[in-house]
Fold this sequence. Notes:
Chain A contains ten helices and no strands. Chain A is mainly α. In chain A, helix 2 (45-55) packs across helix 5 (143-155), helix 7 (191-197) packs across helix 10 and helix 9 packs across helix 10 (257-268). Chain A is elongated. Chain B is mainly alpha-helical. Chain B is 67% helix and 4% strand. Chain B is built from 20 helices and six strands. Chain B has a two-stranded antiparallel sheet. Chain B has a two-stranded antiparallel sheet with strand order 3-4. In chain B, strands 5-6 form a two-stranded antiparallel ribbon. In chain B, strand 1 (2-9) and strand 2 form a beta hairpin. Chains A and B meet through helix 1 of A and helix 8, helix 11, helix 12, helix 17 and helix 18 of B.
Amino acid sequence: MNVLARTMGFSLALMLTFTAVTYVLPQMKGEAPEDIHVDVSALTMDSFIRLGEELYPGKGACTLCHNSLGRAPDLLALNVVSTSLERIGDPRYQGNAVDAVSYVRESMLDPNIYVVRGFGKKGSGDTESPMPAVDKPPSQLTDVEIGAIIAYLQAKDGNPVTVALPARTNESLAAAGEITEPARPMLAQSAEEAIAKFACAACHTVLDTESAIGPSLHDVGKRLTVDQIRDSIIAPNAVIVEGYAQVMPDISETMVVKELELIVRFLAKQTGDQP
Amino acid sequence: MIVAIIGLSGSGFSSVAWAADQAPEQPVAPIYSDAITDESVSSLISAPKPERSDYPNIGVSSRSLVWVFAQMHLFFGALVLAVPIFVLVIELIGFKTNDDRYDDMAHEFMKISLTAYAVTALFGGALTLSLYMLYPDLMAYLTTRVFGAQMLVYVALFFLESLLLYVYYYGWYALRYGNRKWIHLALGLLLNAVGTTLLVVANSWTTFMMAPSGIDTAGAVVGNIWEVMRGPLWNPLNLHRFIANVAFGGAVVGAYAAFKFLCAKTAEEKAHYDWMGYTSNFIAILAFLPLPFAGYWLTAEIYAYSQQMGILAMGGILAWLFVIQAVLICAILFAGNYYLWAGMARTEGSRRYRWLVKYIASVLVLGFLVWVTPHNIIFTADEITRLGGSNHPVLGPLGIMPAKNIAVFLMLIFTFLSFQIYRRADKVITVSWESWANTLMIAIYIVATVNVIFAGVYYGYFTNTVYKVGSSVMQVGSTLVVIVSGVVIDTFLFKGARTLPVSWGRISGRSQYALFALPIAFTWLMALMGYVRSSVRTHWHVYAVVKDNSADNFIPTLQYVGNMVTFVTVLFLMFLLFIFWVANLSSVRQVPAVGLSNRAAAEGVA
């Protein structure tokens, strides 16, 4: 065999070896995201949440960074609602959000307002976020799509979905007699379940968790009467305990009477003496 | 230092001057000129938004066609820009040492480069025409609004490059000795200066599409040409391509030397082409060693510009390509090291160091195995249950970047050790402080190895992600310390050293295949990484500015990519063979048949 044939044979064999490696690896095709046309008039809360669930890893590409690899907070592993309230209560927080919905929306549209410690751009001292604004390229999410993702993030942990359906708010739907049943999670069956469902522990010291954002509920039964406890839940901003910020969300429209009473009765027994 | 250039705005020429040392920091997003007036704002035109119907359909994939032309242009462009760089160095060595062998070898390298130059231009023309035909909106935007007259400067530079190339090559023997040689060397320097400028100008088009600057969010040009060109990825890509071109060029001419060696009939020919092959391999591997550092810089800048883009490349759908990259780089390191070990047979002095080879080989093999270990693969539900998760309990930790960084840097350190023992093989050191210097060198190797492993393990597995990236700085530093201190210590050690005889040509024919493996792996690697670099834009022609709405706006499967890369590599090889053949043809003279005149023989008269 002459030199040309041998060298060509060797070169081709080497190239085929490299090509073979591409054949044994997983074959994935990355489709370009398609523009989604949402018919808001036909949208129910369930389909709104499902839309958010699709957008989260899809067009939004949120999972690219928000995953377990530590590039950004893993939103699927934490309760976004309770965490949002914690962040609002952080002294470093400089935004205007008052509840989980406005906090998440604000984070998506202007990620630099509050950067979680350890997740800022290198050298920025956690003042600059590497996350692009989601309404700008490359994600270019619409307002409806942003709302859908927030709805999904609320619903995934069984939180009440408080984000409004696009175009028509819950209030307008109710007024028109077209109440669309929101994707309400299971009714809490015990005080502990209700406390977990409404993420009270995110800000208050209660059950086995501690938090300094809101007043401790460990001895609330000694400080407040049953009626005062109930009023504080129904109208949380009516009386603000000195030294605490006005950050408790209004959950009176999402909590049912049974859940309210479960929590009230439980808290009334919290006198600080129990083990 | 004040640098003045002709600044070319999107709509025409304008002169600007700027202080290079007062240049603003690298942008991380589209940057804006400070001098935007109300009038200029009102005249801004946003980027086009082509629809699917705006792309001509020619019956075959437009992307694939452009892919082939672009890749072939880049292969040959890299070759013709790189070869004159090391040719100039070899020519200078020949001039300073008064050794005509270097001069002859440099001239032979240039002969290959000259033939490849025309092929580069042909593929450049094909690429340009296909781009204008298949992506008219994008090209209209880039040429008329963004880069404008800068592209004419590129054309002018191309003419100048051609002129200098021809004078440099054809004037070789007319300007060979004495003061005339200085004129020739100056021509070579000019040729390289123009060639490198061509490279960085063309790079600015690429990096603008990846990380646009000098435009607003709608794509309207608001900066001057300098602001458009100096995007955040421009300099990292310039450095990466410059170094990679030299390594690639060295590898390609090494294959030429190997082919000639295998065809050689006489001992003299074998000796010449063995020496040529050794020099080419030396250039290729020496340029290859710092390449990962340039790659780290480019990747770090991609992450700084857009974390999404960085993660897409390194942790998203494109991440699997880095497993293939591992195979290719390991092939390069195996081939380079094997060639050096085989080359140690040229001198008896190498006996002193041969015992080290098995340890170096072990590190390379272990490094390769770690590097190709995937983090996870696609399992069935049953397999996940049996495995206890999507990651293997023992091999899982080897799948992530810190383990691979340890493997890569140790492989680089031990490749340098191969280099060092090869260089020492034909020397008998005579300085009195030899043992002290050797102890220091061994200590540097040990400390660097421990440091690479410690930084990888501690920062990679026991701190959070942010520090993982930082740990590679320690590893890069350790590796560079080994390389630099090795070169410096040996330079002083070799002063007054006795040189043992080296038998050029005394090397196995099998070793020459390592010189073929190098360019094949380099070429495949260049095409693959070029694809990754281009694909991080995903469905954008110009990232986040001009959306790609063509039928090819998806990221293809790895099989498809593998087929395309192999196709262009085979095509490149075919053209390369043609170039080698033509380069040889020029030195073949037909001998007239006995009894016939030269003219009759030339006319083939029997």
